[in-house]
Specification:
alpha+beta, six-stranded antiparallel sheet, eight-stranded mixed sheet
Length: 429
């Protein structure tokens, strides 16, 4: 095991953050211009490539052209995401590009502690290994690297300006490994590569956070510049409004942590079918949600059928969760379906805005959802929605709705066979 880098003078003052020009000290003068060309490529093109695959492949190709024998590159980048804590990406000469997600939890923590990244982060130094003399139990990855024929391995710690600890590794099968000439090229390139990786990471974190909290299409609108108060865009779609029956009563007996768990389990039943049918959850509204299924061209029946399929599937999953005892008490839902216009709008004051969904069609869907409890029906539809279906729903009367001058016709699925028995609420709350 070799270690050629001096200890970092302070926490996170790794080569990615503070080199003070030292990366040029040992570089062969003949490599200065081609090294600058590689730096320029990283900044001008590598930072803007949409995918990671051409970035890592392009970096490997250019390093090999400079005499640095690269057969494998990996990156481990922290991620701000609700479903995973980081992303590992790998390029190899024989298999090309692949990636994996590191889930939150102890499993990822244990894997990290047994990785070269943990050691590099603890010391703030480049970890340079001659795999021929490195014990198999030094790190969990060592037996795999040896089995694949790699001879030398370099792990570089990267500390981004937001304080996250990341890293990049290089491996080669060349018997002479990474000599001083090759290491000098890597040191020369590393500050630029770190800056490019951080730029891509920051952009991805922003994209992830917006997508998680406002949805797919709204996040695109926000990133494209739709952030002025009063801006409105309209979308024709099937609208799905769902909420939990008697949430206030059920949650009043729960600790806050259990109430959050209750909501998450509830949404785990409703949201996957929405996603599977091409819908978009636009808002979580306490114990409810609002989703849309966009019209695609003139075939408005497709969006309505997708919304209906998602609603029925969600009710079935909810009943399964009840049967499995995943709730502290029985939980039912009311779902309303409508077809009309969903309007996105920026509302708020000053620098604090909300990208929300507004309009009479959204209001109608929410009012119909309130009738689920009154009519003891888990799934209700407006006439506008029923008219777009391929089937033949039945009207169950005209009913007064808060905020609407005239009684509104409300529909349900016509035959009991169309609604799985498991999806029907047992009682009005």
């Amino acid at each position: 095991m070799l270690d050629s880098e001096p200890a970092a003078p302070r926490a996170c003052a790794w080569p990615s953050a503070d080199t003070q020009g030292e990366e040029i000290r040992d570089l062969d003068p003949a490599l200065f211009k081609p090294g600058l060309a590689l730096r320029d490529w990283l900044l001008a093109e590598g930072a803007r490539l949409e995918d990671w695959a051409p970035l890592l492949e392009g970096l490997a190709d250019r390093l090999n052209a400079l005499g640095v024998p690269i057969d494998r590159i990996t990156t481990a980048i922290d991620a701000l995401h609700s479903e995973y804590t980081g992303i590992g990406r790998v390029w190899t000469r024989e298999n090309g590009f692949a990636f994996k997600l590191f889930p939150h939890g102890e499993q990822s923590e244990r894997a990290y502690e047994r990785s070269p990244f943990a050691e590099a982060h603890r010391t703030g130094r480049w970890l340079i290994l001659d795999l021929r003399t490195t014990p198999d139990d030094a790190f969990d990855i060592i037996p795999e690297l040896k089995a694949e024929g790699y001879v030398y391995y370099v792990c570089v710690p990267l500390c981004f300006t937001n304080g996250t600890r990341n890293g990049v590794t290089f491996a080669t099968r060349a018997q002479h490994g990474f000599d001083s000439r090759a290491l000098s090229v890597l040191r020369f390139v590393m500050p630029t590569l770190a800056a490019v990786l951080e730029t891509r990471s920051v952009n991805q974190r922003l994209d992830n956070v917006l997508r998680i909290y406002v949805g797919d299409e709204p996040h695109k609108a926000i990133l494209s510049g739709t952030i002025q108060r009063g801006e409105v865009s309209r979308i024709r779609s099937a609208i799905l409004f769902a909420d939990m029956r008697s949430y206030t009563r059920i949650s009043s007996e729960l600790e806050p942590e259990r109430a959050v768990e209750l909501l998450n389990t509830f949404f785990d039943c409703l949201v996957p079918p929405i996603n599977a049918e091409g819908g978009e959850v636009l808002k979580y509204l306490g114990d409810g949600l609002l989703a849309i299924f966009r019209d695609r061209g003139d075939d408005t029946g497709q969006s309505a059928q997708a919304a209906l399929s998602a609603a029925v599937a969600g009710l079935v999953l909810l009943e399964q969760a009840n049967q499995e005892g995943r709730f502290p008490t029985r939980v039912d839902a009311g779902i309303a379906l409508h077809h009309g216009e969903a309007a996105y709008g920026n509302v708020g004051s000053g620098a604090r805005l909300d990208f929300t969904v507004i309009g009479p069609d959204v209001n109608l869907a929410s009012r119909i959802a309130q009738m689920n409890k009154v009519l003891r029906e888990p799934l209700l539809m407006s006439k506008a929605f029923a008219d777009h279906l391929w089937g033949d729903p039945e009207m169950i009367g005209r009913h007064p709705l808060d905020g609407f001058l005239e009684p509104v016709p409300i529909y349900r699925l016509k035959a009991a066979a169309e609604m799985p028995a498991a999806a029907v609420m047992t009682a009005a709350e």
